[in-house]
User: Fold this.
Amino acid sequence: GENVEQHPSTLSVQEGDSAVIKCTYSDSASNYFPWYKQELGKGPQLIIDIRSNVGEKKDQRIAVTLNKTAKHFSLHITETQPEDSAVYFCAASIGGGFKTIFGAGTRLFVKA
Amino acid sequence: EAQVTQNPRYLITVTGKKLTVTCSQNMNHEYMSWYRQDPGLGLRQIYYSMNVEVTDKGDVPEGYKVSRKEKRNFPLILESPSPNQTSLYFCASSPRLQGGYTFGSGTRLTVV
Assistant:
């Protein structure tokens, strides 16, 4: 079946460094790729998304890149801050529809 | 405030005792979905709805039922809960087919 693989499962960086989280997907019909941030005790929150007709999207310190040929997409966080510490999930739409599959998550630690 | 409201936040129940987790959104969103979150598995879609009276199975629908009689409400029903349904459950809504979700705060369910 369709799946989304996410790496790494845990990432520790120094404050001010960059963090990169990578995901690969299996469904070639996927065309929508959101990223969510989940803080302790809360529901996931959408932080950025990208559609298949775009290769890169940036929002302040956060950027996402998409390579449709290779079926992978990545989240880049620059100038990390302690408040960036959270679990991050990538996701992909399935068959171009509403069904969505999430990666297993990456726990990011930003050390002050 | 625009939000998705789930109730209850915490629930401990016994095997076989029917329960309902309620979900309501005040954003007039067409699309709603239920996810369960388990350690190391990310979020897995249980059911989703694309409009009133339109629902479909996600990846892990066994043991669950849903209904969408009104646009704002999307309850999750466990007719005969079992211990393997112990999990953290999230309801989410979206305004369009490929729009990011707004998640509720979660319901932590324990079945003993």
Summary: Residues 18 and 78 of chain A are 4 Å apart (CA to CA). The first strand of chain A starts at residue 4 and ends at 7. Chain A has a mean pLDDT of 94. The radius of gyration of chain A is 13 Å.
